[in-house]
Write a structure and sequence with these properties.
Layout (H helix, E strand, L loop, with lengths): L3 E4 L15 H12 L3 E5 L4 H5 L9 E4 L4 E4 L4 E4 L4 H11 L6 E4 L4 E3 L4 H9 L20 E4 L3 H7 L1 H5 L3 E7 L2 E6 L4 H12 L6 E5 L5 H6 L2 E4 L5 H6 L2 E2 L7 H8 L5
Parallel strand pairs: 1-2, 1-11, 2-3, 11-12, 12-13
Antiparallel strand pairs: 3-4, 4-5, 6-7, 6-8, 8-10, 9-10
Length: 262
Amino acid sequence: MIKAVFFDIDGTLVSFNTHEIPESTLFALNELRKKGIKIFIATGRSWGQMKKLHNFPIFDGYITLNGSCCVTGEGEIIHQVCIPVEDLESLATFHSTHPFPIEFVYENHEIMTEVNDLVAQAWANVNVPIPPITAFDKCPKENVYQLGIFLSREEESELKITERFMPHCTSLRWSPDFFDILPKESSKSAGIDKIITHYGIKLNETMAFGDGGNDIDMIGHAAIGVAMGNARDEVKEAADHVTTSVDDNGIYNALKALNILS
């Protein structure tokens, strides 16, 4: 019996076209609640970015920053881990001679080191204003939960930023234009474990929805993993079920097809 459902935001709950949660999804979330099933967020977004979303309901808990910070619905932080300062200092040395845009992500705000076309497009895609601009050497190095590195796949492969300069971190890409760097202890699947332990839910009572590369681990980890119809092929391959797109009632259709909702 499913007792908890975890949802990615962008491309899963929220449409890239309308930047809102479809009415069918809002209906499905309400129906899950009526059945006593808890609903949780599992996102690469920060807490501050979520608060800016339109028509966003309250959930029972939040896995934010790809698992770097887990928060209950009441606002209690039950898990948090940050990027070690020494890793950031190592990256700073390289960045001083090989600059590229970086997003520093803190608990409630973000900072960009510079803006180019890739940065502008990425923020436009999620309908969120570009954060304030601050030079890398002026960005606080303490309490950094995640970095957004604006390099192409080819540049990432060539420079090997994570492997060379950030040994205590790992990387995830869900956009062709940037990838996230986060502490090795962080992932959406690890966040699921923290949340269900807190709420006394078993892993075989969980379900997860996603569409991006950073959703693959949680889709494979949950008892039932669902990929959206608009998901990348590797996400669909990891899923137990592939539904329709976010703009075609994907979440509602999957919950009906899997008999979670009648």
